[in-house]
Automatic annotation (TrEMBL):
Heme binds at residue 482. Its cofactor is heme. InterPro entries: Cyt_P450, Cyt_P450_E_grp-I, Cyt_P450_sf, Cytochrome_P450_monoxygenase. GO terms for molecular function: heme binding; iron ion binding; monooxygenase activity; oxidoreductase activity, acting on paired donors, with incorporation or reduction of molecular oxygen. This is Cytochrome P450-dit2. Pathway: Secondary metabolite biosynthesis. The keyword Heme applies. Keywords: Heme, Iron, Membrane, Metal-binding, Transmembrane, Transmembrane helix. Pfam families: p450 (PF00067). The chain crosses the membrane at residues 25-43. It comes from the Eukaryota.
Length: 541
């Protein structure tokens, strides 16, 4: 009876709407997909465990919105504007939270030591893990142990003369072209950083600076710079597609695709040479007292009390990881420091006064202990790292399972500023925002080294300086903090000291200006124009 009624209703409807027809499979699929999408949207925005956290509703629906900003190299500024609009904790994806709060920063990175997210896998070297890409804490600790002592202050002091040699060569090269043409500092300091890292890590340098000086391509500097682009692409496409696109017949394109292999070959050659020397008894030394390049340290490292050595594959990947992590980060940071100097004669005058006293012979670089005691130089470096540290982006971590290892477990849902976050939630903060907190750093966008100098010895002044220090994280925080921080700090001090002592630096506004130097971020920052052209003129003796 009911069936007959509905059938007659249907034919009645059909007779009223003669154009009505049964929906096609495609239309049904579309309707179903729309319905499904609506259900997911309503769930994610209103019923998801993270639904109470403020943020734009479209960010809660899908990662697509954030990805569009990542692709436009403006993630840092986008997240910063969300903090300004919604407060210090924001939902930036269906399963992603960003926060800007010093207590939460310490809790996530230093106290609970949450593990890294899979984002870092795009930085694998030679298709293999190294310290930066190793996610589990215990495995990471085993990776970090062999290399960490290399970057200690005491060990780096043994390499000071090598760093000085490279810096004096840099000064000579700049001296020869001073006053003649502008120089792309990004490129120049990439070559400089390759030479510095190669001296400390491999025991010999590829003379990248010399190649730069005669305008010859240096394949290793190019490969280091290409590597992150290759990594992002490689991790975005399946292997069969990668095999296809890496064969596109363009020599420059193939060079980008092969950057991983080029670096691996370079490091492997250094490794075999080092091993041959060691076998010949030439470079074997006491690990605690003798100067030994990173490669030798890794070759000698015993994984356990048994005699297991690190595999060649792991040594190569680790050493490559340090090139990738150290070269572009240093050259970008230095370029921004010099760009700031080119437009701030007031700062240059103070630095030059300090350096003229500390470095009477401009070709003799003072010991790092002397540089580290110079108040204005150190204030400049801190302020530079605050605004121009080259890795100010979100450092993603994952809220652990409740039963996770004691190193990073939390008892129930993790409480982040009053919000309960279930296991698996991706949480992160970014130095970009921590360093721009107006309460801690008044006039945060102003480059002001003086903010790091104590006005008096009062308790209030001590508290102000301590609060700024707590908010600083240019090298990250906790057990995953930058492994090469010690070397980066030494190099920054030596370069700034030497450059201001030897040169006056200018920018020609038609080639280098606020627009060309606008900061873009692809985890590591870079200027919008992908170059930083500055002119150097030698200072009178
Ligand atoms: C100014 C220059 C530099 C900046 C701003 C910088 C910044 C950073 C940051 C923020 C991290 C942490 C990433 C995270 O938590 O996800 C990191 C990690 C790392 N950096 Fe640097 N870095 C610099 C220079 C260097 C240099 C010169 C080296 C080595 C030669 C280096 C080697 C590493 C390594 C090995 C890691 C991974 C640490 C680990 O997980 O054990 N960095 N760096």
């Amino acid at each position: 009876m009911a069936l007959a009624t509905s059938a007659s209703t249907f034919s009645a409807l059909y007779s009223i709407h003669p154009n009505f027809s049964v929906p096609s499979t495609f239309t049904s699929f579309l309707l179903l997909a729309t319905f499904f999408f609506l259900c997911v949207t309503v769930y994610r925005v209103h019923f998801h465990p993270l639904a109470a956290i403020p943020g734009p509703w479209y960010a809660a629906v899908s990662d697509f919105w954030l990805t569009t900003h990542v692709a436009r190299l403006q993630q840092c500024t986008t997240i910063q504007s969300l903090f300004e609009a919604y407060g210090p904790v924001v939902r930036i994806g269906p399963n992603k939270i960003a926060f800007c709060d010093v207590t939460s920063m310490r809790s996530v990175y230093c106290i609970h030591k949450f593990e890294k997210s899979t984002y870092y896998k795009s930085l694998l070297t030679n298709d293999n893990d190294h310290a930066m890409t190793t996610l589990p804490n215990a495995e990471h600790a085993a990776r970090r142990k062999p290399y960490a002592p290399h970057y200690s202050q005491a060990n780096l002091a043994l390499f000071q003369s090598d760093i000085h040699d490279v810096t004096v060569k840099l000064t000579d090269i700049l001296g020869r072209i001073a006053g003649k043409a502008s120089v792309d500092c990004l490129d120049l300091f990439r070559h400089f950083s390759v030479d510095v890292l190669a001296s400390t890590n491999f025991g010999s340098r590829p003379e990248s600076l010399d190649l730069w000086a005669v305008n010859m391509p240096d394949y290793i500097s190019i490969a280091v710079n290409d590597f992150p682009k290759r990594g992002v692409l490689r991790s975005a496409v399946p292997t069969w597609a990668w095999n296809l696109i890496s064969r596109i017949p363009s020599s420059r394109w193939r060079q980008v695709c092969a950057s991983d292999k080029i670096m691996a070959q370079f490091v492997s050659e250094k490794l075999y040479l080092m091993r041959a020397k060691m076998l010949a008894g030439k470079a074997i030394g006491d690990i605690d007292t003798e100067k030994m390049p990173l490669l030798q340290r890794l070759l000698q490292h015993r994984i356990s009390s048994a005699s297991d050595l690190m595999s060649d594959q792991n040594i190569v990947s680790e050493a490559m990881g340090h090139l990738v992590a150290g070269v572009d980060s240093s050259s970008t940071t230095i370029s921004y420091f010099l760009w700031e100097l080119s437009r701030r004669p007031d700062i240059v005058a103070k630095l030059q006064r300090e350096m003229d006293d500390a470095m009477p012979d401009r070709r003799v670089i003072p010991d790092i202990s002397v540089l580290s005691s110079l108040p204005y130089l150190n204030a400049f470096i801190k302020e530079g790292l605050r605004l121009y540290g080259a890795a100010p982006s979100l450092l993603e971590r994952v809220v652990p399972q409740r039963t996770a290892s004691p190193v990073s477990s939390v008892d129930g849902d993790f409480d982040l500023m009053g919000y309960a976050l279930p296991p698996g939630t991706i949480v992160s903060t970014q130095a970009w925002s921590m360093h721009r907190s107006a309460e801690v750093f008044p006039s945060p966008e102003t480059f002001l080294p003086e903010r790091w100098l104590s006005a008096d010895n009062s308790e209030a002044e001590e508290e102000r300086l301590a609060s700024m220090a707590q908010h600083m994280m240019p090298f990250g925080a906790g057990p995953r903090i930058c492994g090469g921080q010690g070397l980066a700090q030494v190099v920054l001090k030596i370069v700034v000291a030497t450059m201001v002592r030897n040169f006056d630096i200018k920018a020609n506004p038609s080639e280098t200006n606020e627009r060309t130097m606008a900061i873009k971020d692809a985890f590591i920052t870079l200027p919008a124009a992908l170059e930083c052209k500055l002119s150097f003129s030698s200072r009178p003796q």
